[in-house]
Design brief:
This is D-inositol 3-phosphate glycosyltransferase. The chain is an alpha/beta fold and 426 residues long. It contains 14 helices and 18 strands. The protein folds into two domains: 223 residues, Glycogen Phosphorylase B (Rossmann fold), CATH 3.40.50.2000; 171 residues, Rossmann fold. The chain starts with 30 loop residues before the first strand and ends in a 5-residue tail after the last strand.
Length: 426
Amino acid sequence: MSDSTDLLSSPTLGNAPERAARAPSDKPRIRVLIAADTFAPDVNGAARFAERLAAGLVARGHEVQIMAPAPSRKHGSWTEMHEGQPMVVHRLHSWRWYPHDWLRFALPWLIRGESRRILDSFHPDVVHFQSHINVGRGVSIEAAKRNIRLVGTNHFMPENMVKFSLVPVGLQDRVIKAAWRAARRTFGRAAAVTTPTRRAAQFLEKYTGLTGVRAISCGINADNYAPNFEPRTENRILFVGRVTGEKQIDVLLQAAALLSPELDAQIEIVGGGDQKRNLEHLADTLGIRSRVTFTGYVTDDELRGAYSRATVFAMPSIAELQSIATMEAMASGLPIVAADAMALPHLVHDENNGYLFKPGDAQDLADKLTVVLTASPERLTALKRESLKLIAAHDIKRTLNTFECLYRGEPVSDLVTNGASSQSPE
């Protein structure tokens, strides 16, 4: 299992749970091509979702192939294991995008040719593309020519992309608008368009003019996470995610510096990214370096250990279309303190399983963290149990059921609508 959300395990392999696994025996299996601009071993939420989806579908008996840029200079088609499931992966010849700390991309004209080759050899029933940029655009054009059913999922915000581009600040608004127009063209080819949350769906509809975008949770297997109800012996604040600018980890460090010294709060930052050195310097400047641990990438077992020993999970990001890391923290029974931005209010119900704070406001974040860190054992247990209750709506089995219906053209209900779960198709 290579990890994510935004999540932050290093690429390792694990076993997909069999109980998440079986499709109804009376329905035909589906041939699915999942096309992604980022896939394991990349470490982000979109890659994590595509990997989990593919492994879950294979476990149910469907035939799944992956099309994605190669994570190194080696490219070609071969069988890989992901979450314990074998699948053919077509690794496209890729180039490193050096403004970003890991991103690699495939050239558009090569993608079109590779799309033709893969589609004509695999003959999928459906192509599920994960973004409108290079790979999604190219494969959707070729699939549409062949009348192959298209499903598109958006994990992408152009506003985040330009931060890693070389585009001058004065031209960035134009680039963002052009990116949304491109999204309109590519997603417009799809029979169904999804995003992880209702707010993300509304965001996509607003900026592209599309209608009928479905909110379908990325889903997690909560059985992989074990809540810890033992009395806490320390105050430990956990963040899991890419260590990049849009995550606003600097706000978390500033908030940590505002906490009462009597709390003796320890801050654990799990993940890697281009801002690590800057944040280490900020921790030094704030005088809290001895209380902040930057772990970098970790294994799945180490990640679960981090969730287990934490008192509270903090997510200061303002750009989450869902946040798999927050979902995993909830499945681990953690109270959440998160920015009141984008999709996070779908997961964090203020004063129920945690608290929302004003985005970018370090003092407000510090105040909300203090509420959790000073809560009575009874109150802390109540917050934890509510996280476990709310995460049930995001079970990966529901997500798999829903995408199976979309692939077949069957009617479905959104799994997540304004923070409440809908009934999943059976």
